[in-house]
Structure formats: structure tokens, C-alpha cells
Specification:
By secondary structure, the protein is α/β, with parallel strands linked by helices. The chain is built from 22 helices and 28 strands. The chain has five domains: 11-123, no CATH class; 167-310, Rossmann fold (3-Layer(aba) Sandwich), CATH 3.40.50.300; 316-388, Helical domain of apoptotic protease-activating factors (Helicase, Ruva Protein, domain 3, Orthogonal Bundle); 399-488, Arc Repressor Mutant, subunit A, CATH 1.10.10.10; 628-829, Alpha-Beta Horseshoe (Leucine-rich repeat, LRR (right-handed beta-alpha superhelix)), CATH 3.80.10. The termini are far apart. Keywords: Plant defense, Repeat.
């Protein structure tokens, strides 16, 4: 009996042992299945949760599923810790794993499927609801059944305009709109350039109509756009009942439904006259739809939508054609020369051509002749062209920043059709408007004015990666009409109270208020008769902070006796071979900036330069295309700029050393001065100098041997000096030098031996040094500095640095050089 019982117990033990072994064997595959299931589920659940949150749906179901997964992951984590020593634990964990896997599968197959079915039913119901709403929206009262594929026979664009000279820009725009992938295209240009007319013309182009059919919508946005009104206009274009919208969001949602229904065929939406600050409005009209295009017309180049298309002024022939179209008359037209003179004064502006031609339509010859004479003697904006003035004024009204408006009006200080150096603007604005001296804020204003099509900028030479605020090769150009607008704005106040006084003197012609020596006789006699004695010539008192005087080649230096006590910036634009500074110059006690520019063919000889010695506040002088006279003592001068000047009298035939004449000079810029062979003696004694830029001075052969005395020098630029054969070894003693430029010094055969001792060096420009065959070994010392050093060079220069691979903080840049030769059309040789 005992044996039987013992055998039964033993048999049960063996049976359980066999079951344990079997479950132990099943543990591994079960664990692997669980791991695989969880790995597959985790990213799917994470993605479902993102969409669930985006749609703002209840999160309970997702949270239950996440709980299942967390519990499963915890069980798997514990199971993976088991080893062969825990063999007896395998069956228990195998059972738990199997149970958890079955529970997860059941949840997925039952609960989740039911949730999916419920969501699908809700989705169908919602779509059905939207469809019913859309059908109500699309139901037209007494207009027949809405097709939905196209708005037949309807076009939002106004009637086709008559215009000339737009074939080229029209074809370029058409190509862009017929392309795949272009969603927003910006057509930009200054006020009155014909942007809206071109956009309207485009809507009637056969190829555009062939693609977009009746799905062309034209909406004027203007200065204060109302989004709901714009969307209502689009509904009206479709011939539908115009709905009332509760909010802008409601309007956009309903518009999306409309366009998607219409959008079975391509759609073109023209948003005309979009003002600054309305980029967000344009964004709201963007929908992800195939063949849906938006054309924006604006005086602002919205670059966030890609490269805009710039509409330029008309050339003369097309301008004549457009003028004759607007001036059509049953009578015989005036002679061709008269027409050409009037058209020339319109500066290629379609708006100006229309306004002037309209005023002459059906007028007698004498009226045409008077218009020609008026346009020769005064601005077109003052020639009964109120409409044109108002239209251009809108461009200026876009500038909300008062400082930007002031900077725009400063552009009128310079002659018509001439390049304005950006460095001149930087100098002026630093003193007038308190902008920083390195040009950062000034260039921000320049770029904003470019974006608003008020100016354009050309760079005669541009290195793509240059970032060291060097703008000697950058020039601003302004359309003639906008220049006249700037001058017109400056005349807004009475003569005596103007902030800017702009004077044009041609030959012996003088304005009525001018009182000079040639009038002094009669005035003196009159005063003598009244007072019984001779009196001095009457002095003209002005309150202007800026005085600009332009003279022609026959100007006789007959200056009036002016009291410019408040003038801080004096701009002298001349053309004569000899030029005398105004006699009243020494009275400008507040003068800070002097800009003298010769636009004539030959360099001009400056006379009475010594008058500047009386001005204690004079900080900046820029001379262009003049023969610089012997230096005067200018103790507070901080910046001297010489461009295309003769420097021999100032630098070689001097009576006082330059360090005595300008002891506080901080910056010296000499460009295209081809008679400069060396810097004057005593130059290195100007220890206040921080920046020296000597560029394109091809006869310069050396720099001072004691240049290390310039202990505060931070920038030394010696680029494009083709005869420069050596650089003083003492350059290595410039302990604050951070920028060193020897680009295009083709005769330079070696660098200073200790150039590696320049511990503050950050940028080293050495492109185009074709005669440089090796670098001194001391450059290895540049690896000891903590900051990064940029070397800007070409492939040949980079090859020289390959011999020094162990300079860890060295960065070699080989930028492409862009050379723009268009500026040569306006250069002064």
C-alpha cells in the first residue's frame, strides 16, 4: 500500500516536472512574441496619440492602450532578467506573459475595432453634414444649377486694359504661372509702374485663360484689408449668395470649401495692391491644392514667398507709344521732338505718362509747348500732376518709422541718375540720426527701402561670404521720380524752416532769394538812399541741418552771404575744374560732415580748403575726384575718405605733418587714388587710428616701416594695390589687428616673417596674391589663439596652408567673387 502511494506521488511529481520543463521550454518563444508585439505597437500608439491630440479627441481609449503596453513592458523587463539558475521561475513568468499577450490581443481585436467603427460612423455623419451645408452654400437663387467643376463665363478680373511695352514682363510672368509647383508669385515695383495693369492684362492672356478658364479671381486688398469682405467678394465672383461670416476663421474655412469645390480645375487668385504687414493675410489664402496659384502685386518685395518679379520703368520707345495712346486726339499731333521731350520728363512711369498725356489731350499746340517748358524748369510733381503726387506719396506713407522717412528724403541731396555711395549714407546717418558707425543699422534701413522698391543697390565687387561690414563697393540708386518725391517732401516747410535746403545753381542763374556780390551794388544804393549810408550785404539766415548745393561746369563761385548756423551736413555736388568752398563755410560752427563730389570729367582743384580749419565739430570728410590741397589743421577730424583723388599736394608737398593736421583721426579710407606712392611722413604717429583702407591704389609700393606704432589699429586693408611689393615686418607688432586684407596684391612675394604673432587676428584676406609662393613658418603660432581664424583665399592660397595642417582653429574659405560691370555706365573716370 505504501509502495503504491509512493509510486502515485512519484508519478505526480514526474508529471509536474515534465509540465515545468515543457513550460520552461515555451518561455523563450513567448517572451520573444511579447517583445515583438510591444516593439510594433509602441511607435504606432505614439503616432496615433499625436493625431488624437491634434484633432482634440477624447484620450481615454489611448490611455487604456498605453496602460496595457506599459504593463507588458514591465513584465518583459522582469522576464529578461531571469537566468538558468531561475529555471523554476520560467513557468510562472511564461504564464503571465501568455496571459498578458492574450489580453492585449483581445483588447485590440474587440475594443479598438469597436472604437474605430464608432469613429467611422461619426466621420460619415460629419461629412454628410458638411455636404449639406456646402449644397446650401452652392445653391444659387435663379441662376440655375451650380456645376462645381468651373465657374462658367465668370472672371473676377476687370476688363482688359490697353497697355504698351509689357510683352516681355507679361511673358515672364505667364511662364511662372504656367509652371508646376509655383504657389505664390509676387509682382513688385514702385508706385505707378503698372503692376495692377500688368496683372489685369495677364488675366486676359489666352494661355492663362486656357489653363485657368473662368477660375480667375481678382481682388484689390489695399492698405486696410478686411478679410471677410475679401472672401465675400470671391463668393460674389462665383455668382453665389454672399454669406455672412462670424469670424475671419469662419470666412477662411468657408473659402477653403468653395475653392476645393471649384478646384477640380486650376485656380488663379490675384491679390492686388498688398501693403506691408499683410504677408500674414496672403498666407491665409494659401491652401494645399494642385494647380492653385496666387499672384500678389505690391510695392513691397515680399521675399518670404520667393524671389519677386521686379517691374522696371518703360524704355523710351514704349513710353512714347503709351503716351500717344493716352493723348490720342482727332487733331494733328504736335511734332515728334516735342513729344520726346515731354515723354523723357515722365521717367518711364506709366502713371506719369497717363497723367501728363491726359492733361494734354485735345489741347492746342501752345499748351504742349508750355508743358515742355514747365517740365524743364520744375519737377513733374509740381506740374499740375496732383494725381501722380498722391500716388507716389502712398509709397512714402508705407514707411511707419519716422527715421526711415528721414533717411529716404536724404537721398534727394544728390544729383539725378548718379550713384550714391553707401559709405556716404553711413557717415551722414551716424551724425544726423544717431545710427551706429559700423553701418549695421544703416544697412538695415537700406535693405528695408530696397524691399519697398524705394531704392536699389548695386555692388561693384562682392565676395559671397564677406561679413566684416565693408561697404566701399556698394552704391544706392534711386528712380528719378522718387528722387523728386524726396525733394518735394523736403520743401514741405517754409524756406527758412526747412530741415534740408537743396540748392541747384546753373551758370549765372540764381534763385530769387539769392543775394550775392553781383546784386550788391543796386542793393547798397537803395539802402544808401534810404539810410544815407552804405550797408553790408543782407545775410540769409537758414535753419537747415542739411545743406546740399549742386553746381554745373560754368558755375562762377559767386556765393551768397548765408548764415547756415545750424548746418551739420554739407553736401557739395560740382562739375567744374576749379571749385571754391563757399565763403560762409567758416560760419558753420555745428558742421560735422562734409561731402564733396565732382561729377565732371576732370579732377577739380579745391580752393579755400583752409576755411575748414575754423570748424571745431567737423568729424568726417569725404572727397571724390578732386585734387586734395595742402592739409589744414583739423584737430577733431575722425574720418577722412578720399576716392579717385589726387593726393600729391596733401601727402608730399605738405607744410605740416599729417599727424599734426589730424591728430585724432580714427579711420582713413583711400580708394582709386592712382598718384599715391607712399603714405606721408609722420603717418604712424596718428596713434588713434583704428581702420586703414587703401584699395585700388596701384602705385602704392610700400607701407611705413614703423607702422607698429599704430597701437590701436584693428583693420588694415591693402587690397588691389598691384605695385605693393613688400609689407613692413613691423606689421606683426600690431597687437590689436583683427582684420588684415591683402587681396589681389599681385606683386607681393612674401609676408612678414612674424605674421603669426598677430594674436588678435580674426580674418585674413589673401585672395589673388598670385606671386606669393610660401607662408612664413610663424603662422603655426596662430594655433595658440583661442578664437577661430578665417582665411579667405582662392585655391592657390589654400594650397599654401596645406603645409600647416595642425592649426586647429583655422577655417579656410574660398568664396566665389561676383563682379557686376553694370555700374560702369554711371562711373566717373
Amino acid at each position: 500500500m505504501a509502495d503504491a502511494l509512493s509510486g502515485a506521488v512519484m508519478g505526480e511529481v514526474v508529471k509536474k516536472a515534465l509540465q515545468t520543463i515543457k513550460k520552461g521550454r515555451e518561455f523563450g518563444p513567448t517572451l520573444e512574441r511579447n517583445i515583438e508585439t510591444l516593439n510594433n505597437l509602441a511607435p504606432l500608439v505614439k503616432e496615433i496619440k499625436v493625431y488624437n491630440d491634434f484633432l482634440d479627441r477624447p484620450s481615454e481609449e489611448i490611455e487604456r492602450l498605453e496602460k496595457h503596453i506599459r504593463e507588458g513592458e514591465e513584465l518583459v523587463r522582469k522576464s529578461k532578467k531571469l537566468t538558468l539558475w531561475n529555471f523554476l521561475s520560467f513557468p510562472g513568468y511564461q504564464g503571465k506573459l501568455k496571459k498578458k499577450d492574450e489580453g492585449l490581443q483581445r483588447h485590440l481585436s474587440v475594443n479598438v475595432q469597436l472604437e474605430n467603427k464608432k469613429d467611422l460612423i461619426k466621420l460619415v455623419a460629419k461629412v454628410d453634414e458638411i455636404s449639406k451645408i456646402f449644397e446650401i452654400l452652392m445653391r444659387k437663387e435663379n441662376l440655375g444649377q451650380f456645376d462645381g467643376s468651373q465657374i462658367r463665363g465668370l472672371c473676377g478680373a476687370p476688363e482688359e486694359p490697353q497697355c504698351m511695352g509689357v510683352d516681355e514682363p507679361l511673358n515672364k510672368l505667364k511662364i511662372q504661372l504656367l509652371k508646376d509647383g509655383v504657389s505664390v508669385l509676387v509682382l513688385t515695383g514702385l508706385g505707378g509702374s503698372g503692376k495692377s495693369t500688368l496683372a489685369k492684362k495677364l488675366c486676359w492672356n489666352p494661355q492663362i485663360k486656357g489653363k485657368f478658364g473662368g477660375n480667375i479671381f481678382f481682388v484689390t486688398v489695399s492698405k486696410t484689408p478686411n478679410l471677410k469682405n475679401i472672401v465675400q467678394t470671391l463668393f460674389e465672383h462665383c455668382g453665389l449668395r454672399v454669406p455672412e461670416f462670424q469670424t475671419d476663421e469662419d470666412a477662411i474655412n468657408r473659402l477653403g470649401l468653395l475653392l476645393r469645390q471649384v478646384g477640380r480645375n486650376p485656380i488663379l487668385l490675384v491679390l492686388d495692391d498688398v501693403w506691408p504687414g499683410s504677408e500674414g493675410l496672403v498666407e491665409r489664402f494659401k491652401f494645399q491644392m494642385p494647380d492653385y496659384k496666387i499672384l500678389v502685386t505690391s510695392r513691397v518685395a515680399f521675399r518670404r514667398f520667393g524671389t519677386p518679379y521686379q517691374l522696371d520703368p518703360l524704355d523710351h520707345d514704349h513710353a512714347v507709344s503709351l503716351f500717344l495712346h493716352f493723348a490720342q486726339s482727332n487733331d494733328k499731333m504736335p511734332d515728334k521732338n516735342l513729344v520726346h521731350e515731354i515723354v523723357k520728363a515722365c521717367k518711364g512711369s506709366p502713371m506719369a505718362l497717363q497723367v501728363i498725356a491726359g492733361s494734354l489731350r485735345k489741347q492746342p499746340f501752345v499748351t504742349w509747348q508750355k508743358m515742355k517748358e514747365r517740365l524743364k524748369s520744375q519737377s513733374i510733381l509740381e506740374s499740375n500732376s496732383t494725381d501722380l503726387l498722391c500716388y507716389l506719396q502712398q509709397s512714402l506713407d508705407m514707411l511707419e518709422d519716422i527715421k526711415e522717412k528721414e533717411c529716404f528724403m536724404d537721398m534727394g541731396l544728390f544729383p539725378e541718375d548718379q550713384r550714391i555711395p553707401v559709405t556716404v549714407l553711413i557717415d551722414m546717418w551716424a551724425e544726423l540720426h544717431g545710427l551706429d558707425e559700423d553701418g549695421t543699422n544703416a544697412m538695415a534701413i537700406v535693405h528695408d527701402l530696397i524691399t519697398r522698391n524705394l531704392i536699389s543697390v548695386i555692388a561693384t565687387r562682392k565676395v559671397a561670404t564677406e561679413t566684416d561690414m565693408y561697404y566701399n563697393n556698394h552704391y544706392v540708386m534711386m528712380h528719378d521720380l522718387l528722387r523728386e518725391l524726396a525733394i518735394h517732401q523736403s520743401k514741405g516747410e517754409s524756406f527758412e524752416q526747412r530741415k534740408r535746403l537743396i540748392i541747384d545753381l546753373n551758370g549765372d542763374n540764381r534763385p530769387d532769394w539769392w543775394i550775392g556780390p553781383n546784386q550788391q551794388g543796386i542793393i547798397s544804393r537803395v539802402y544808401s538812399f534810404i539810410a544815407g549810408m552804405f550797408v553790408k550785404q543782407k545775410q540769409l539766415k537758414v535753419a537747415a541741418r542739411i545743406l546740399s548745393i549742386s553746381t554745373d561746369e560754368s558755375f562762377s563761385s559767386d556765393w551768397c552771404d548765408m548764415q547756415p548756423d545750424e548746418v551739420e551736413v554739407l553736401v557739395l555736388n560740382l562739375q567744374s575744374d576749379q571749385y571754391s568752398l563757399p565763403d560762409f563755410t567758416d560760419k558753420m560752427s555745428k558742421l560735422k560732415v562734409l561731402i564733396v563730389t565732382n561729377y565732371g570729367f576732370h579732377r577739380s582743384e579745391l580752393i579755400k580748403f583752409e576755411l575748414l580749419g575754423f570748424l571745431s565739430n567737423l568729424k568726417r570728410i569725404r572727397l571724390e575726384k578732386v585734387s586734395v590741397p595742402c592739409l589744414s589743421i583739423l584737430k577733431n577730424l575722425q574720418k577722412l575718405s578720399l576716392h579717385m583723388c589726387n593726393t600729391r599736394d596733401a601727402f608730399e608737398n605738405y607744410s605740416i605733418q599729417i599727424s599734426d593736421a589730424m591728430p585724432n583721426l580714427v579711420e582713413l579710407s583711400i580708394d582709386y587714388c592712382n598718384d599715391l606712392i607712399k603714405l606721408p611722413d609722420g603717418f604712424s604717429n596718428i596713434t588713434t587710428l583704428k581702420k586703414i583702407s587703401i584699395t585700388n591704389c596701384h602705385k602704392l609700393s610700400a607701407i611705413p616701416q614703423d607702422i607698429e606704432k599704430l597701437e590701436n589699429l584693428e583693420v588694415l586693408r591693402l587690397c588691389s594695390c598691384s605695385d605693393l611689393v613688400e609689407i613692413s615686418e613691423s606689421v606683426s607688432g600690431l597687437n590689436k589687428l583683427r582684420c588684415f586684407d591683402i587681396s589681389d596684391c599681385v606683386s607681393l612675394s612674401k609676408l612678414p616673417n612674424d605674421i603669426g604673432d598677430l594674436k588678435k587676428l580674426e580674418k585674413f584676406y589673401m585672395k589673388g596674391c598670385s606671386n606669393l609662393s610660401e607662408l612664413p613658418y610663424s603662422v603655426i603660432n596662430l594655433g595658440n589663439v583661442k578664437h577661430e581664424i578665417h582665411v579667405i583665399c582662392d585655391e592657390e592660397g589654400a594650397a599654401l596652408w596645406e603645409h600647416f595642417p595642425n592649426i586647429p582653429n583655422l577655417k579656410i574659405d574660398m568664396p566665389k567673387v561676383e563682379i557686376n560691370l553694370n555700374w560702369l555706365h554711371g562711373t566717373r573716370s
